Amino acid sequence: MFMARITGSIVSSQKVESMVGQKLLIVEPLRLNDKARAKLNSTGRTFIVVDTVGAGEGEVVLCVQGSSARFTEQTEKLPIDAAIVGIVDQVHVGNHTVPIPN
Amino acid sequence: MFMARITGSIVSSQKVESMVGQKLLIVEPLRLNDKARAKLNSTGRTFIVVDTVGAGEGEVVLCVQGSSARFTEQTEKLPIDAAIVGIVDQVHVGNHTVPIPN
Amino acid sequence: MFMARITGSIVSSQKVESMVGQKLLIVEPLRLNDKARAKLNSTGRTFIVVDTVGAGEGEVVLCVQGSSARFTEQTEKLPIDAAIVGIVDQVHVGNHTVPIPN
Amino acid sequence: MFMARITGSIVSSQKVESMVGQKLLIVEPLRLNDKARAKLNSTGRTFIVVDTVGAGEGEVVLCVQGSSARFTEQTEKLPIDAAIVGIVDQVHVGNHTVPIPN
Amino acid sequence: MFMARITGSIVSSQKVESMVGQKLLIVEPLRLNDKARAKLNSTGRTFIVVDTVGAGEGEVVLCVQGSSARFTEQTEKLPIDAAIVGIVDQVHVGNHTVPIPN
Question: What is the CA radius of gyration of chain D?
Fold first, then answer.
């Protein structure tokens, strides 16, 4: 899985029928910065994910990729390869807490 | 999933039998540009995907990869690892709308 | 899926039993060149794929990756993650036809 | 699979119900350094994985990705794409032993 | 699939129970060098794979990734995402034979 920040959303009116009603969010994966591991930096990549936990723009979330994105009650059998499965509250590295970017 | 622009199509007359009749489109994944997130840029990569929603060249679409590409009525059991599952109408980031490239 | 050129083949005499008799080809994925999209360039990567359509060295083919490589009659249940599922005859981008490299 | 060092952990209070009670660790994949292959270097990437073997921060572990992350008793049917399946005690290359970073 | 050279092995005494007795090898994927395609070069990446064919250090092998790594008698249901499924004896490109590095 990876941590990512929700930066936006997309609207798709013409889509596969099973996808109707699914919230489609734009996320940017984050990584700890080198050496210090004291900050979360964007990787600059852009993914579209389905939200299963009521997350909103600006939040840092936990995303799952691949077939496992179908292993929640809401997403079972959907043609999706990425889903949000949690909201990240705290990030701990050694003795310090890494701030969640906002 | 990822957003991508349809740039072309391919013709394959000799292929696995189950693939007969499937439209094979060329897409280029898109990403939001750094910092501003006000534009969608091509990543320069080239994928071949099966269309399930009647999309056409020039349109920006939502693509799914991996085993989940088989989770639509049309693509069930096909030997494909990527499919278009929606046409992207609008992209929202914060308070602004990101233009769909054409 | 991706387009690739067949550049060679490998021989493996000691292998998993279910793989006996499978033709193992070397392919290099191709991508459209930037902006013009008038040529197919090699990505320089090297993959080994199983052939299911009688393709030969020098041909440009359509390859599938992941679990879907097992979704042809010939490859069902094989321990493979990539297969050729078609031979590419024509590549169309906008109003022009992209030459197939040989 | 890949070797990785555990650098931290995350807390997620709002998450998919099946994930309650799962320990979420931050890992950085490692690779042998070029030529000499005498050291393990971080790739600088950041993944979140579920622990199944009681590993702790600072340890070097073996991680599995994709659907196979669901093939342990503890993780069956979880919406996860990465899990720790072993603690790495020794790394051997040719006649020497590569030190485990701490 | 990809070709790789076996460079070492790892020892993991604390691991998922189903993994007991599995040989864990370190491999470096190989690619043909540009243009000439007359040599196999290391990509510098490091993967851990399960051996199913009795391969040893220094040998060049064929590796499969993802769920298909579970499609051999020995690896069925194991939490692994990569396995060796053959030993590479010969590599042919056009009219020449590419030497197997040792």
Answer: 14
Residue B101, amino acid: P
Number of neighbours of residue B95 by Cβ within 10 angstroms = 5
Hey, what's the torsion of the CAs at A10, A14, A17, A18, to 10 degrees?
-10
Q: What pLDDT does residue A62 have?
A: 98
β-pairing, D47-51 vs E96-98, is unpaired
CA distance A67 to A69: 5
B87 and A14 within 8 Å at the Cβ level: the answer is: yes
The closest of C44, C45, C62 to C100, measured between CA atoms, is C62
CA nearest D49 in A: which residue? Answer: A1
Cβ distance of B48 and C62 shorter than 8 Å: yes
Task: Characterize the bridge pairing of strands A90-93 and D60-65.
Answer: unpaired
State the best of E47, E62, E67, E72 to mutate against chain C, taking most chain C CBs within 10 Å: E62
Q: What is the mean pLDDT of residues E77-84?
A: 98
Q: Do the Cβ atoms of B86 and A16 come within 8 Å?
A: yes
E53: left (phi over 0), alpha (psi -120 to 50) or beta: alpha
Give me the phi and psi of D87, to 5 degrees please. -100, 135
**How many Cα atoms occupy the beta-carbon half-sphere of E58 within 13 Å?**
3
Domains of chain C plus CATH, in order, are 2-98 (2.40.50.220)
In A36-95, the residues whose Cβ lies within 8 Å of chain D are 37, 52-54, 62, 64-72, 75, 83, 85-94
Q: How far is CA D94 from CA A42, D98, E42, E58, in A?
A: 38, 10, 17, 9
Question: What pLDDT, on a 0 to 100 scale, did the predictor assign at position B101?
Answer: 83
Query: In E12-99, at which residue ranges do the beta strands (DSSP E only) sit?
Result: 24-32, 40-42, 47-51, 60-65, 82-87, 90-93, 96-98
Name the token pair of C71.
């979704």
CB contact under 8 A, B86 and A18: no
Instruction: Say what the ipTM of the complex is.
Output: 0.96
Instruction: Give D36→chain A minimum CA distance, Å.
Output: 23
In which band, very low, low, confident or very high, does the pLDDT at B90 lie, cut at 50, 70 and 90? Answer: very high
A45-65 confidence digits (pLDDT tens): 999 999 999 999 999 999 999
Residues in chain E: 102
- First vs last C-alpha separation in chain E: 21
Inter-residue contact A7 to D21 (CB < 8 Å)? no
The string over D60-81, giving b where at least 16 C-beta atoms fall within 10 Å of a residue's C-beta and e elsewhere, is: bbbbbbbbbbbbbeebeebbbb
Residue B102: the pLDDT is 74
- CB hemisphere CA count around A52 (13 angstroms): 25
How many other CB atoms are there within 10 angstroms of residue A96's CB atom?
12
Interface contact flag, C16 E69, Cβ < 8 Å: no
**Averaged pLDDT for residues C9-31:** 97
With 0.95 as the threshold, say if the pTM is over it.
yes
Mean pLDDT of B34-41: 91
- Type of residue found at D78: L
